[in-house]
């Protein structure tokens, strides 16, 4: 390698070293310490046994059906939230893309405005709507029906998560739609293709990178969400994040909480990488790449 290339490589590493150090300090080191903590021995009378390690926390995760139930609930709710965000977010992004100024900017601000409001505030707003004496049950009672239990149910958690996660689906899809050539759609329509065929054969394959990004973001955030399940799901409808919270602050069993957190991270990565590989393979096959 020539001296010029060596100097260029060293200069590049030097420029990237602050970001690399920040990455190591804020992500790799905490994850490493959490992984190490998950192997520590814990006793309810004496606490964490420093220097003593065990696999019992991970064995409990794979043998106790209690944890199976909570992980299964977390991932089916996350998958349902992701599906609903796709079904709502793609049409909304398409409508937003076809709007003319200044309405496009106005509605883009409307889409992004919920991100400026705390998740806790939005959760309390949904609890006022879905509670036993909330506006929805008041309307049902006024129409002659019986109040329905909506709060502290999977329905409430799904509704709250969809409301929180929807902008993370709309924005990537909208960004992909900006790169779409309208002439391709017009050519297909002029040749007699239906609107559904145009969407399925022309639009959807080209916006799949945005859909893929949105689904990965929504699923990952929904699976690790704490505020919405905690406030709208209650104490009985546990999800993995609320279970980790209980292990750390209620049980004071930090190693078990760390083991659950590591398991959530690994399963999340496995699901997201598998989905990414599947969608990318179909995307390339559709485009003939």
From TrEMBL:
Keyword terms, alphabetized: Cell membrane, Membrane, Transmembrane, Transmembrane helix, Transport
Pfam families in the record: BPD_transp_1 (PF00528)
Alphabetized PROSITE patterns for the sequence: ABC_TM1
Any Gene Ontology biological process: transmembrane transport
Source species, domain of life: Bacteria
Statement: the UniProt record of this protein carries the keyword Zinc-finger: no
Transmembrane stretches, start-end: 20-42, 70-94, 106-130, 150-171, 210-232, 252-275
One GO location term (cellular component): plasma membrane
Membrane topology listed for this record: Multi-pass membrane protein
Locations listed in the record: Cell membrane
Similarity remark: Belongs to the binding-protein-dependent transport system permease family. CysTW subfamily.
PANTHER family listed in its UniProt record: ABC TRANSPORTER PERMEASE PROTEIN, INNER MEMBRANE ABC TRANSPORTER PERMEASE PROTEIN YDCU-RELATED-RELATED
Designated name of the protein: ABC transporter permease
Organism (species): Pseudomonas putida (Arthrobacter siderocapsulatus)
